[in-house]
Amino acid sequence: MTEYTVEFVGTDETIEVADTETILSACFEEGIAQEYSCRVGMCLACSAEIVEGEVTQPAARGLSDEEAERYALTCMARPQSDLKLDRGKYPPSIEDDAATAAGDGAAADDD
User: Fold this and answer.
1) Beta bridge partners of 17
2) Which superkingdom heads the taxonomic lineage of this protein's source (predicted)?
3) Which domains does the chain show, CATH number per domain?
4) How far is CA 22 from the centre of its chain?
5) pLDDT digits (tens, 9 = 90+) for 15-74
6) Which residues contact residue 95 at a Cβ distance below 8 angstroms, ignoring those fewer than 6 apart?
7) What is the pairing mode between strands 83-87 and 71-73?
8) Positive or negative: CA dihedral 16, 22, 25, 31
9) CA separation (Å) from 96 to 1, 11, 25, 77?
């Protein structure tokens, strides 16, 4: 078992996470408030942008292969190196879906 340092960008929070545990479970252990919902890699609530480093997250079904290179689902992601994560950053597909839904809702209200 290897431990890696996970630093959360924009906060003073840094934790040590074993390569055998998820980043989310380490956050729980350290008392860090990390957003989450489903805990099975689907809802993307626990998403974080990978600023630096690598993770493995084979069960992160909510991300495309391309998104999984730039974003970590902390409920599934296990560090493979020291990391810098920017919490609360979501893949473009989520941002696009939210904008489309907001646009559709506004159009529906005008009818």
Assistant:
1) 4
2) Archaea
3) 3-89 (3.10.20.30)
4) 11
5) 999 999 999 999 999 999 998 898 888 889 999 999 999 999 988 888 998 999 999 999
6) none
7) unpaired
8) positive
9) 39, 27, 29, 23
Cα-based distances in Å from 73 to 25, 80, 94, 109:
12, 14, 13, 34
Of 63, 37, 38, 39, which is closest to residue 49 (Cα–Cα)?
Answer: 63
Question: What average pLDDT does range 2-18 have in this prediction?
Answer: 96
**41: phi > 0 → left, psi -120 to 50 → alpha, else beta; which?**
left
Whole-prediction pTM: 0.82
- Amino acid letter, 92: P
Q: How far is CA 65 from CA 57, 59, 70, 80, 91, in A?
A: 10, 11, 9, 17, 11
